[in-house]
Amino acid sequence: MDDVELPEARGWDRLRRPVWLFDNDAKRHIYANNAALVLWGAESREEFLGRDCSDQSDAVKARTQRLLDDTANGEVVNERWTFYPHGEPTTAKILASTFRLPSGRAVIQMEAEALEVDADQVRSLEALRHAPAAICLFQPDGGALFRNPVAYATFGPGNLHLEKRYENLSAAEVLLADAWDGRPSSCLLKARTLQGERWMHTTARRVSDPVTGAKALLWASHDVTPQVEAEASLAAAADRADQAEAREARLTEISHEMRTPLNTLLGFAEVMSAKTECPEQRDQLTRMVSAGRRLGDLVNAMLSEGEGSETQASSKIAGPTPVLASGEEVAPLRILCADDHENNRLVVTTMLRAMGWSCDTANDGAEAVERVRAGDYDLVLMDVQMPVMDGVDATKAIRSLNGAAGRTPIVALTANTLETQLRRYRAAGMQDCLAKPIGMAELMQTVVAWTAPRQDGTESDAVLSA
Questions:
Q1: Which end of the chain has a smaller Cβ tally under 10 Å, C or N?
Q2: pTM of the entire predicted model
Q3: How confident is the model at residue 282 (pLDDT cuts 50, 70, 90)?
Q4: Counting beta carbons within 10 angstroms of the beta carbon of residue 270, is it exposed (0 to 12), middle (13 to 18) or buried (19 or more)?
């Protein structure tokens, strides 16, 4: 690329001080005098002007754009730059200004003066300019003394106006006041940046301007938006989990309090209906059962609406199909019913004994475990919500027993039948679930389903997988 034809070029060509023009849009130099060619280690003017400078680092890109912005109205910027001709660092004092081409386009005019500087100072300055944090030095009135490239790319030009920069203004004002009082501190600020609203971990401390010795403020900000958003997401997830747990506990309590008395009413109504020989009483009891079932459906519907994404499951977790050979008599069964509610125990034992089966009872999970350990039961009907030891822990304890006792079929008989609860029962080793209120036909079918293998002379080892 040929150098531009400018009247000023003849004067610049005679200077011993390096002078060159840089087109920030094209990322190329468009003029250089002989001294500049020496500074840059160029073989010729054509070779220098032909160099492609588009591979600038983000810090250098931000810095050159700042030079254009800061000198747009005729100002001159005086600062140190380190150049790397052929990879060798050269530090110089630069006077930068905006130069208008005949076309009116603005480019950067640079004049350089070689400096002898301390190596540590040069390294510190370069590290500061390439640091990932936005670092600024401000005067007491908020005027900017220095901004590293990240600060410029984050906030753009301008002074420290807290009300323009931060959403949580009060926190920023406290940070500023503490810093000027000599108390270095930090806080999380929600900043308005060129990239939109970002969370910045910001520190501030009072320092001295290394040039004038006057008081100054060192203001450093690090973008922590990803971490803040991740923490907020985790907190929201934890809150949703807490709400779901509270909702499940509330639904469990409501389900237990409503279905337990329904179980008693419907159970005894069915038993009495099967025993009575009076048509009028049988009709009345049948109507009671029908009304109770409708009430049970309303309870289920109400609970289902409160469950959200949960699924109300009044059907079985899973289980074998009942096998009853035609004409064969069902062998007497020995069943254990564990329930802390006396009416529930009485309903279940009455139903089972009406079929000619033996039914023992336990008042809590711990008692159920001991009875299974000492007895020989064909099936355990296990309530879940019990004192001392609940049904889930009791099932786990039974599954840990040795021999046939540990393989005894266990069916949950409970008012708590949310999908999450069914998964807990399954994981503990329960093989089926009956929802309260329980009907006699459903109870009989389930008992036969899980005891049929034993009646054939075999034992069932079935425990449902998750």
A1: C
A2: 0.43
A3: confident
A4: buried
